[in-house]
Amino acid sequence: MGLFPFDLTGKVALVTGGNVGIGQGIALALAEAGADVASVARRTSDATVAEVRARGRRGLSIQADLTSLEPIERIVEQCEAELGDIDILVNNAGIIRRADAVDFTEADWDDVLNLNLKSVFFLSQAVVRRMIAQGRGGKIINTASMLSFQGGVRVPSYTASKSAVAGLTKLMANEWARHGVNANAIAPGYFATDNTQALRDDPERSREILGRIPAGRWGEPQDIGGAAVFLASRAADYVHGIVLPVDGGWLAR
Length: 253
Prior knowledge:
This protein is α/β, with parallel strands linked by helices. Helices cover about 40% and strands about 15% of the residues. It has helices at about 20-30, 45-55, 70-80, 105-135, 155-175, 195-200, 205-210, 225-230, and strands at about 10-15, 35-40, 60-65, 90, 140-145, 180-190, 245. The chain has a seven-stranded parallel beta sheet, with helices on both faces. The longest helix is centred in the middle third of the chain and has 29 residues, at about 105-135. It is globular and about 50 Å long. It starts with 11 loop residues before the first strand and ends in a 7-residue tail after the last strand.
């Protein structure tokens, strides 16, 4: 394996939702380890690309709305044309909608499932078809959640999507490991991101959450980077189908 099993020099990573929060933290960690990075988001990823380039790597911003399947081939082709064949895919883009289950709407169900689950599968499919054809294998890293393990409250479509991501990751591992493709997931705990703004703005709910986290704080985007680099690297070549919590000890409490 050599002295530097975590070195990603020469690798190309495609990160969805790489413009902010956890996705940006992952993108910058991969760049720090040597990878060139394309960030896919509905808005431009100029800040992420600038930080990637500041680390001496090539960066690319791809604007696309992954709530539909329409842009998937364009995303993959643009990344390949400008950076090269994709070695690492990080399926991180996601949204959350909050309402009591008895009041939850079909629109809020469909919007979340389309982005958090459907796009994860079909973007992975498009990338892995190429990985298999190239015969070089690769790494798929999905973003799961604490709600891949627990039920949560007032987030039925998010819980459904993240429970499904955990199962889908195992399915991917079962089918694609023989092709040298490692499929795994990271389950972030409670991180200070846009998705948790409502929780952090609620003093009582925030206090309850922090009271259960042994580390005693909300996660920051940079806390996720080490797990992503590990799963993207040669150090994880024999790791398939896991859901790795990065949660400050939340699940241990």
